[in-house]
Amino acid sequence: MTTADLHIGRVVLRGTASAIDHARATLPAALARTHWPADEAIVVVRRLTVDGTASELPARAAAAAEHLTRRAADPWSPAADAAEAVRFRDALDYRACLVRDLLSGTAARRWLWRHRASLLARPAAQAVADLFAEDALALPALLERPALRDHLPALWRTLDAPAARTLLHAIGTATGWQEAIISALDPTHERRAEERSAFRRMDGDGFGEASLGSSPVHAVGHGASSAFGSSALRSALPIDLPPSDPRVVLQAVLALWTHAPATLAAATAGEILRATAETFVPAAPRTEPKTKDPREPHTPSAGASREASEPASDSTQAGTAATPVPPTSPPQGTAPPDHDANAVTRNTPAGDMPDKSPTRAPATPSRVSSVAASPATLPPAADVDFHTRGGGFFFLLNVLNLPALRDWRATLVEPQAGWRELVRLAGSLDFSPDAPLAAFLAATCDLATDGDPAAALAALPAGADLAPVRDAAFRHYGATALAAALAERPGRVRATRSHLDVHLRLSDVHRDVHLDIRRTGLDLDPGWLPWLGRVVRFHYDSGELAEKLSRAGSSARRE
């Protein structure tokens, strides 16, 4: 831990001026040197009270902080409100808990969020969007936390169009998908969408749904919508929202991100994202005049049935998850003042301004409904954590990420194309994954396994032309480095929906036989991969973890 990781709120010191100056200068470093929980834990301490001389004070404060850390409460439990310290597992756990409290309206009352006073002072929609934007690359994993499942309907009701636009800007900046997002937000494409919708309704003369469904772009859009529709992230959007509404585009981005992330970096990304957004907006029912037979029993209209099935838009549903705002802020449900709109403008890409047309009613949080989200089953959100003998398999990600393959990657539109092309490349190099790795790859490739992941991977049909990839692999890295990478290499893999961390033994990369891997950079951190939709990190460990990897490799060989 460093002083940069330490955030101190208010410090009250009593004593002589020189003693106070000395304490202020030494206290942060002394606290940074104390023992904190391992891994990526975040500890929030309510207060520390210590006394002593100027030289004693930092050490005693550090000792007191360490003592409180060992007794820290679970921030998700009611006991946290009476505790003197809470411990979050990691930054994802921290943000998920804060999101829950923002949406439930309890954040401003809990002491553990006092250090986020500036965030809590914002309107609820903007506060949630800004919190998500702090680590936009982790958004899929954050939204699929099991603890947030019951709060997702409130999330979609709270997010308004300006907040969703702010979040889309943050996603585009972090991922490199700006062009596709800006294109989808362009309302000039709505007229074409309406024309396609009318064209789709034509039956006869050889036109209709079947002819449009043959388009690869529309096939990707419908496939992503269908896969996303079973997730608890999916919400039922109001029928009057256009496909270019930021809330609709946000759902479309999330759908493609989880189902076919390579399409968001493809050459046709804008068209695919618009087509996906169209599938999230239900078509308005056509009303045809009909003479009602007085003998028929009364039946409600489709619109009346839909209204009856949706919850009433009262203050508790329309975003009372909002935290208290400054006195100058308007009451909930009213349009934000100009300075809030200007703040959104500053965070909005050029040419992507919020629609201020006077003919459109101002958006309110209650316009977004998510009644279908809560009962749905969440995809597994817990970390995937397993040991494998083939840890070097993930070095091939650097092959697919070569600049020379940029045009090739732009053609990928298959579901989970990044993972599938990785499996195809490894197969062409005669690599066979062990059972744990095969199970992971079959899941990430979205394959039906029937209990045999290895067979499902072997049966994966051909995808994009693999010749350019093989040529680039041998040209940039050479056969020796590729063979060394795919040789037996114990590793530990931890994955979420947004991150992939591969832990390898430090000793493995120092062997003479593997110098080609180091020399060519095949083992360098890939980082964010837009075509894979994940952040990938390689960790080279020694000590206890290295010993576990060694034991795991030996055990796997015996089996």
UniProtKB/TrEMBL annotation:
Compositionally skewed regions (Basic and acidic residues) per UniProt: 287-298
Comp. bias intervals (Low complexity): 361-376
Domain of life, source organism: Bacteria
Stretches the record annotates as Disordered: 280-377
Compositionally skewed regions (Pro residues) per UniProt: 324-334
Protein name in the entry: Uncharacterized protein
